Structures
1.
Amino acid sequence: MPKAMPNHSGRMADETCPVCATADIICGKWTILVIRDLAAGRTRFCELERSLAGISPRTLSLRLRALEEEGMVERHSFPEVPPRVEYSLTEKGQALLPLIEDMRSYGKEWLKVCSEARASVAPVAA
Amino acid sequence: MPKAMPNHSGRMADETCPVCATADIICGKWTILVIRDLAAGRTRFCELERSLAGISPRTLSLRLRALEEEGMVERHSFPEVPPRVEYSLTEKGQALLPLIEDMRSYGKEWLKVCSEARASVAPVAA
DNA sequence: GGCCCACGCTTCAGTTGGTGAAGCATTGCG
DNA sequence: CGCAATGCTTCACCAACTGAAGCGTGGGCC
């Protein structure tokens, strides 16, 4: 009997709720950012490590594995030395890109509002 | 020097990246679902506890507090017995609703694909 | 030959976030 | 009296994420 959802583990309340389903996919701390960076095309582990400044290799490894299991990313491994592994988005993974674009536009607006708020408060405090 | 973002703690790599900013806001496990439920209007603590079946009161309390700090939700407390507290989305919080709608449509599609995959695999295995 | 580097990880011990169960304060109801 | 209801908080625990270190392999450097 196949499990309904190939997600990590700590599952949301309602398995049939689409919002929960999506939340479950992207709720890992770095998941969305991994996908964002993978959107540029095939990317190597160390490139991701660099662009996701601050991620631990363990976490990146776990995220990539989980995303692979979920069918969001594909792994292309080359038996060279030093080893080379490239990751890319599957179609399913690409489907998340519009969502990420929305997050970008929301975040942009939000950062703008925040900086305006700071600009209008700081002078008074100073 | 005021902090750029009033987010919880474990901050993302690039503070100026809009995707990170949004990810930072919604990456808490239940955050998006709290906002989803708050979208219906003023909601009490225990109502949220019920609709978010499975959330611990501690987590709900923490999420609501964090969202309040971030200016996403408003708290309306009535000094009655038993106590009554209602939560609602601020304008800033409402701005997240389109994002949630996108998550809903993505999740819907994804659940559909999953169930189709199961339907086409299960009979073979059985 | 000996040494270090690069890469894609894994292992380790420690911190943070979320969990279920229980408790607290208040007061009306039976 | 004892219990229910509400909005929490506290507790001990588990799972996720962290930084630092290690591993295996072979190539470049000296």
Note: Chain A touches chain B through 46 residues (CB under 8 Å).
2.
Amino acid sequence: MADINNKTPGDDEIRQAIELLFFAYRDFVADPDKVLADYESPKGSLGRAHHRVIHFVGRNPGMTVAELLQILQITKQSLARVLRQLIDEGFVVQERGPEDARQRLLYLTAKGEALETALSTPQRARFRRLFEKAGPEASRSFRTLLLELINEDERDQVLTLIARKQQTSP
Amino acid sequence: MADINNKTPGDDEIRQAIELLFFAYRDFVADPDKVLADYESPKGSLGRAHHRVIHFVGRNPGMTVAELLQILQITKQSLARVLRQLIDEGFVVQERGPEDARQRLLYLTAKGEALETALSTPQRARFRRLFEKAGPEASRSFRTLLLELINEDERDQVLTLIARKQQTSP
DNA sequence: TAAACTAAGTCAATATGGCTGACATAAATA
DNA sequence: TATTTATGTCAGCCATATTGACTTAGTTTA
């Protein structure tokens, strides 16, 4: 009776993994949500969308708007509101591209870096606890499986992105 | 220079895991999103919120509204709109609780089951591919680490929930 | 060089999924 | 009986996303 709804053997483990991913992600994003809720900014509050921008710009200083759009997979109109707010409030600055002057290269300000740290600290703590408990082998295997969960045609791109060495500031 | 922004050793692996989780979840939820986009219902379209309800009611037939709220961690007003739509369109039915007549026990209809299958099929396929490639040991370790990513005080509850044996229909 | 394309920004309208607060009903319990 | 609990509902608000149309400036190409 336990397998009443399972289509093939192993489906129960698969379903459990699907639910675990849901709960893990739910708690994982709840950390920075709490930080943002406490953070009162002048022009409207900051949300998850701002967090994602802060994260990726912090990690990839000098990235273009187009690159950011590709990562977030949202429309430029959606990004516009968020990015405008972050720029207006001094978390992010833009520089015109030295090669291609149409591009706007994005950087965090010191204020932006501070927010990035505040947001990522609880998330890093969550993973650090995990990796310390599980050991290096399981941790490596965890990252490998996460990577293979990503659409096949984007894996190389993601690998390149996350392995990219940190560049210097503007 | 590679560790310029790292606070402690291992931070680079941690940051990579954080980004991988973001991308993995992004692609993971994109599967059912596509299914839902194709699914034209009479009174407004269905979204992720409906998917989550369909999933958990499908997995836990006879669950109460309170249990569902606890899992989703949203307000009852947020759930109300989604649940009302699913009931009105015949995906979900309610039964008054036999012990406690205030409760409304939730079940999927045949139509609801069909939608659940359509939504979960691509997600299951994604995980099946993964688990077949990685082998049982890595797969087990993956689930263990996902579980430990969840808030400590909720882990037992989640374990109980996902390990629960499938019950019979109303 | 003129035409075409590209990177980015903007305006407007709309959908979805959350939230708070207030209040209602019915059933269980102290 | 009085209170608490499970659920539902109304109203308004906010954050995040969408599509479509259009602009500006800079690059590329025919």
Note: Residues 64-66, 76-77, 80, 84, 97, 100, 102-104 of chain A lie near DNA strand C (CB under 10 Å from a C1').
